[in-house]
Specification:
By secondary structure, the chain is of the alpha+beta class. The protein folds into 3 domains: 103 residues, no CATH class; 83 residues, DNA primase, catalytic core, N-terminal domain (DNA primase DNAg catalytic core, N-terminal domain, Alpha-Beta Complex); 128 residues, Dna Topoisomerase Vi A Subunit, Chain: A, domain 2. 32% of the residues lie in helices and 20% in strands. It is built from 12 helices and 15 strands. The strands form 3 sheets. It has a 5-stranded antiparallel sheet. It has a 5-stranded antiparallel sheet with strand order 6-7-8-9-10, with no helix packed on it. Strands 12-11-13-14-15 form a 5-stranded mixed sheet, with helices on both faces. A hairpin with a 2-residue loop joins strand 3 and strand 4. Helix 6 packs across helix 10 and helix 10 crosses helix 11. The longest helix is centred in the last third of the chain and has 14 residues. The protein is elongated. The chain starts with a helix and ends with a helix.
């Protein structure tokens, strides 16, 4: 289906209440003054959306599985979309009706019962403990707030395990696995104890979040309060678990070959994709946070999020040339 935000001209700003604001496109067609104060607004709900003009009070909406109504047709015409394209989109929406009805009627949520796990012998990170300095410095360098998440370290271990940060996996406030991040520059850097279907940082997604930002790496997720796959593919169980958040999921892949290939699966399961125009030396979300800061990184992700396959493919081709 069409991406409504991509056909609205001009700049758009995501407000704290979840509305995308911009200069409304309906006012002059309805006999009002042209909006120059960003009084137009769109709020997304998965594939559905609502439009409201706070200048002339024009309102319309779109719901996948239903035909495009007259007021929504008018809005699309204000955006420069012709009648034939609107009819095609309306028919495409109707083609989803049977599938949506089946999903609502028959699909049951998968129950996840992850096995409880014990962590290796370790101790909580302590900024005042000189033995922990190497671990604290590493997290500070990556702009990770170690007061916001529980980290463990192994300074009393010998050999390679002496330089290890342990990040526990929580599900319903219980430990169900962990990642070890080794700081000795040897391969592998990470060793995961992860159960099938688990999504890192799932417990930390708050009910007032409008979206869930999905990334590949643990430190990418920790730096923006998102969720991590901990690998470069989205498996079916992870998609089912994320669906139970009832949020719009925005996938931000790593900027490498396998990361860009995972976009296809993200689109298949109904996620939006964001490919911000970051510098060439930014390879993932955590790199962006280190370079630009957390808030600018989040804003760039939200502003570039789209479900338009054409737009995503154009952005992906540009990135492939830069890899």
């Amino acid at each position: 289906m069409f991406d409504i935000l991509s056909i609205i001209p001009g700049k758009k700003r995501l407000t704290p209440s979840g509305w995308y604001s911009f200069n409304a496109i309906c006012c002059t067609s309805l006999g009002h003054r042209q909006d120059k104060r960003g009084r137009g607004g769109i709020k997304l709900d998965g594939n559905n959306w609502t439009y409201h003009c706070f200048n002339c009070n024009f309102t319309c909406n779109f719901e996948l599985g239903r035909p495009i109504g007259q007021k929504t047709t008018d809005l699309l015409k204000y955006a420069g979309i012709d009648d034939q394209e609107i009819k095609r989109w309306s028919l495409e929406s109707l083609q989803h009706k049977d599938l949506l009805d089946f999903t609502v009627k028959y699909e049951k949520e998968k129950t996840f019962n992850f096995t409880l796990k014990n962590l290796p012998e370790c101790e909580s990170i302590d900024v005042h403990n000189p033995d922990h300095k190497i671990f604290v410095d590493y997290l500070v360098k990556r702009k990770i707030d170690f007061n916001k998440y529980t980290f463990y370290v192994t300074p009393k271990e010998e050999g390679r395990n002496s330089k290890r940060i342990i990040i526990p996996y929580f599900y319903k406030n219980k430990i169900v696995g962990h990642t070890s991040r080794y700081l000795d520059d040897r391969i592998p850097k990470y060793i995961n104890d992860q159960q099938p279907g688990y999504v890192f940082n799932y417990d930390m997604q708050k009910s007032n979040y409008e979206v869930c930002i999905l990334v590949e790496g643990i430190f990418d997720a920790l730096s923006i309060d998102g969720c991590a796959l901990t690998h470069n593919t989205i498996n079916d169980d992870q998609a089912k678990l994320l669906k139970q958040l009832y949020k719009r999921v925005i996938f931000v892949p790593d900027r490498d070959k396998t990361g860009l290939e995972s976009i296809d699966k993200a689109l298949e399961v109904g996620y939006s994709v964001s490919l911000p125009n970051w510098a060439d030396d930014v390879k993932d979300v955590n790199d962006a946070v280190v370079k630009y800061g957390k808030l600018p990184t989040l804003i760039s992700i939200l502003q570039n999020a789209t479900s338009s396959k054409i737009k995503i493919e154009m952005q992906r081709k540009k990135l492939v040339k830069r890899i």
